[in-house]
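Sample log: Allantoinase.
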Amino acid sequence: MAFDLVIKNGLVILPGGEKNVDIGVKDGKIAAIGTDIDAGEARVTDAEGLIVSPGMIDAHVHISEPGGSIRDHWEGYDTGTRASAKGGVTSFIEMPLNQIPATVDEESINKKFAAGEDKLSVDVYSYGGLVPFNLEGGIQELDENGVVAYKAFVATAGDRAIEGDFMNVDDYSLYEGMRQIAKTGKILSIHAENGPITDKLGQLAQERGEKSLAAYVDSRPVFTEIEPIQKIILFARETGCRVHIVHVACAEGVDLINEAANDGVDITCETCTHYLYFYKEELDDIGPVVKCSPPIREKSRLEGMWERVFDGKVMFVTSDHSPCTPDLKDTDDAFKAWGGISGIQNNVDMLFDEAVQKRGMSLVQFSDIIATNVAARFELEGKGRIEVGYDADFVLIKGDSPYTVEKEELEYRNKISPYIGREIGAQVAGTILRGEEIYSLENGVSNVKIGKFYK
């Protein structure tokens, strides 16, 4: 067989374990896996000393295009997908906010597709929103236009003063939306925090003059994650809707979800890299750039989250890349700062360092939590595995290769990140999308825009 690309000499993460094998790629697909593949006239990537993993599929990413006059300077498809490529992410599932308008019906999703045309360095799948105002046809329109899942907030969401922005669901909208989504067979992913309680606790803290990130964390205690998860489980039993809880930040939440799954509820969860790395006691030294919700919790809780990742109770790890402009983080009042972390460029390297190099995670489990499990849960055909017939999407990882994250090296439109100044003990050496190199450590991000929307 004549190949377009052959990857040689790498330690390749296959479904059954890692092996020193070659990979032959033809027409964007994995065509052969074996030893001493004859490259012929194909391009050759020498992966000597590198780990070859399925490219990361980040299941939780926010891009703010279209953004209108309010958010047009936040994160666009060009910069957001360039950062993805540099970070070893070959595909991501885009949340239905923070675009304006939010992705809640056929018209808005088509505006999103138009905004990203010819700007994508990686492949993009789409979430559709579940909001109180799209129960009359919007869910069906989104299903017909290719969303792979739906997203809802039971926490307070968005700026309701912005026309077309996102809104959290009330109990009826959640119930009815779940009934409708169940008929599509797709998943509803939910931000699970008790909005009325966290809003009131935050208000009272501000009235007391509190401004610190520690106080912000205290205004969103663990039970405010647990209570809505219990409700979601009840609604899932009643409606038959498949559900997924995003960015779980506490071990108690993970345990509750797994108990329900073991009892027959179709429910899974994810956590984020920042919940496995940062901790409450250091947040005020870092500043509002590390604010998010649910909040980053105490250092004493870190290993409990890691234990559940290793035990397979957390299905995958995401970035929840939620960027903004620097002015929205430039405040000494944590309650007023934008809640979101720019992180997509430092998920693969940070997770590899923290999980594999520091804690001994197997390479197969690592590839599962960054790619394979995501593709399986959201039924992304041809993605997430190094196996013949699958898309030739790879990240090449250089282990035991420490470097310090520098602001100037970030591809984000707004170069802010809590990882700046942190040393990471591994690097992304290259990223390949459907057989084409989109990033290399030597040459940077390719300017060829071969990414596509899946519709």
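Observation: The chain has 13 helices and 21 strands.
Observation: The longest strand covers residues 123-129.
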